[in-house]
Amino acid sequence: MATSLTSKSTINVLLLGATGSLGSRIFGTLLERPSVDVTVVVRSRDKMNRILYNRQHPSRQALDPASPSSSLERQLSIIEGDATDSDLLARVMREKSIQVLVNAAGHAPMFAGRSSHSVSDGKDMAFGSDNEVARIVRASVDAIEDVAKSVEVDTAETRVRGWFIGGMLLLDLPESHGGRAKQLAPEKAHSLDTYLPLYLHHRPLESILRSSKHLDWTLVCPAKMIPRTQQRSKPPTSSAVPGDDNATSVARRTPSPTLVATADVPPRWTVWPVLRALPWGIGPVLEIMVNSPRYTVTFEHVAEFIVDSIVREHGLYQEREQKQEQEQDQDVSRNDHERDPHEVPGSVVGREEGERREDEGVWINSKIGLIACPGRA
User: Fold this and answer.
1) Residue among 53, 37, 35, 36 at smallest CA distance from 45
2) What's the Cα-to-Cα distance from 363 to each of 68, 122, 274, 357, 368, rounded to whole Å?
3) Residue 71: what pLDDT?
4) Which has the least CB within 10 A, 9, 97, 307, 316?
5) 192/291 Cα distance (integer angstroms)
6) CATH T-level fold of 11-43+81-319+356-374
7) Angle at 15 between CA 317 and CA 220, to 5 degrees
8) Residue 77 phi/psi, 5° resolution?
9) Which residues of 76-94 are buried (b: 16+ CB within 10 A; e: fewer)?
10) Cβ contacts of residue 363 below 8 Å, gap of 6+?
11) pTM
């Protein structure tokens, strides 16, 4: 089974979809972090080698080299195979002691077929979904469960951290509360695709992820993604601001946008009571269409958000472990009222099913909405 993130300084990451528009940016951002060892599963090793060559020689035409440079041999492993092959994924996870799985594969199709299998909300139908995105996520979950069976003692340290990509329409429609967008209670929440049924190949993903007993997942749900070169503004900062969903706050004007993230609902959503009052359920549809253009982000935005979050979590794990070791060495027993207020409360991995965590920019078992806003000085 994958080892704990706290067990060593290097983070072992398995990346699926490394040759795609988003996956290649995640791949490049991961390689920029010396603390990360990357394993990729790709259909074509040649295509992966071309991406590597173009990354190392951006001003030259790719010559299709046979292998990555020696400087990457320690940090990178390339496995040729199919991301829907759960047996292959399980073998790679065992051999590479994978701690974090990032799935950016299978998102090229913009519209899925509208068969009952690909749009069903039911748990059984979600498992049987015939679209590629759902098959890859299903294979990832099956691999994690398969690896978990081989572990004699199931502990929090043997769980896998997972990052998956969905779409903005998986997020819930917010409600207005004191001039701010607010998430509805779970029993009353309805996803945006309930009102605007597009990109339905994403719909089964949450049910599949929730079926795993050994995965701490985050489902990142961006809207339209474009290359950074298409943006008029200067490159954004890579830091995300968790929990900022104030739709009325005014940010300072700076040339670099900051990525704002919230759980379950789109951040900084504008609720239109006038539209909500329209009959026949047309109001939410119009509200979604009015809000959606503001949520365009770059592929680089999303890649940096995911990789920064992985590294940040790893740092929190290490810091907490070091504090625990110091306390054990000193044989110090503290009461709850004596605890350091800045200490990370509890383990980020290995929680009960359905439990969530959103402090310190860490989201467990959550859907995440993103928006690029003017940066803050």
Assistant:
1) 53
2) 34, 25, 33, 5, 8
3) 58
4) 9
5) 12
6) Rossmann fold (3.40.50)
7) 70
8) -130, 130
9) bbbbeeebbbbebbbbbbe
10) 218, 242, 261, 263, 309, 356, 357
11) 0.77
